[in-house]
Amino acid sequence: MTDTSIRQYTSEREEDREREEENEETLVCPECGGNLASDAEHGETVCSECGLVVEEDEIDPGPEWRAFDAAEKDEKSRVGAPTTNMMHDKGLSTNIGWQDKDAYGNSLSSRQREKMQRLRTWNERFRTRDSKERNLKQALGEIDRMASALGLPENVRETASVIYRRALDEDLLPGRSIEGVATSALYAAARQAGTPRSLDEIAAVSRVGKDEIARTYRYVVRELSLEIQPADPESYVPRFVSDLDLPEEVERRARQLLNTAKEQGVHSGKSPVGLAAAAVYAASLLANEKVTQSEVSEVANISEVTIRNRYHELLEAEEDFTAP
DNA sequence: ATGGTTTTTACTGCGTC
DNA sequence: GACGCGGTAAAAACCAT
Fold first, then answer.
1. Which residue is nearest to nucleotide B8 (CA to C1')?
2. pLDDT of chain A along its 324 residues, tens only?
3. Which nucleotide has the least CA–C1' distance to A5?
4. Nearest residue by alpha-carbon distance to C1' of C16
5. Under 8 Å CB-to-CB from A264, ≥6 apart: which residues?
6. Domains detected in chain A
């Protein structure tokens, strides 16, 4: 059994996990594990459980509503909608001609030529920024569409758009499709948020094929050095259980099986989905619920053979755990 | 490209309803 | 006989080198 060679399913060290959660967009309080809530009025992100302030002095994206006199009111009420991730340009752009001629066709003075050169430079900078914004707009639309098709919550979309933005900023897009990168961002975000979806599920709602997603995903993860934990089998359990209309007891037992399996180190290098499916199956046996292997394999998109193998291992691990 | 692992596919035998 | 389940061997997929 190789513990280190297989990367996809093998767990990184625990410290890495903690460190990563501080760096990345974390949604769980590092102190007590409670949920974080952002408080726009104070510009803080605080834990709803213990009150720990995680972020301070955040920028309020809202408009400047305050005005102290009439003149200032005129000035500040220019605001449109508050800036959001969804902002993009209207597709308007300007080009400055390359000839150094004025409107009458006369050549410009050297002073004027310099000035126009500077203007071209800046115009170009803003224009490419605009094209990135358009790109972003489309990608975010895709992310939204896929996320809702998969029933992924708001925070996952948020994380996905952050990842996408980073990919865009680092010029990872050229040579890759917007779709592909957007899908990869969503896949990564779902895994980071602990609500993973399998590649197959993702591919089912995406416009690009599975292999391309996998390729760009690897690329994006490497380039942005995102540290993504191997998916935790437990995070699949609730979904399978509810898809199969099984009682809560099954879920509890399945979790327990997975936990003892973890302590025995049986799970290293195995597909988390397979483990989860096997745990659900084994748990329903223990709970005297009738579910067939094929039903479980159906909802988990895993072969029956894998379920058989895993659930034997799970039960063995359970025995070894209780016996000695 | 290669090699080592895991997962899938396909097939077979056994027991039960 | 269909179905659920278990096992096996060979093929395919996957990951790291």
1. A303
2. 333 333 455 544 433 443 433 333 446 666 566 666 665 555 567 666 666 666 555 554 444 445 555 554 454 444 444 444 434 443 345 566 667 777 777 777 888 888 888 888 887 777 767 777 888 888 999 999 999 999 899 889 989 998 998 998 888 888 888 889 999 999 999 988 888 888 888 888 888 888 888 888 888 888 888 877 778 888 899 999 998 889 999 999 999 888 888 887 767 778 889 999 999 999 998 888 888 999 999 889 999 999 999 888 888 887 776 666
3. C16
4. A5
5. A317, A320, A321
6. 29-57 (no CATH), 131-224 (1.10.472.10), 233-322 (1.10.472.10)
Q: What is the DSSP string of A160-199?
A: HHHHHHHHHHTT--TTS-HHHHHHHHHHHHHHHTT----H
Rounded, the Å distance between the CA of A62 and C1' of C15 is: 47
Distance in Å, residue A305 CA to nucleotide C11 C1'? 15
Model pTM greater than 0.70? no
The token pair at A159 is: 């994380």
The answer to whether some atom of strand C lies closer than 7 Å to the beta carbon of A7 is: yes
Q: Is the CB of A239 under 7 A from strand C?
A: no
Long-range Cβ contact pairs of A50-55 (< 8 A, separation 24 or more): A54/A26, A54/A29, A54/A30
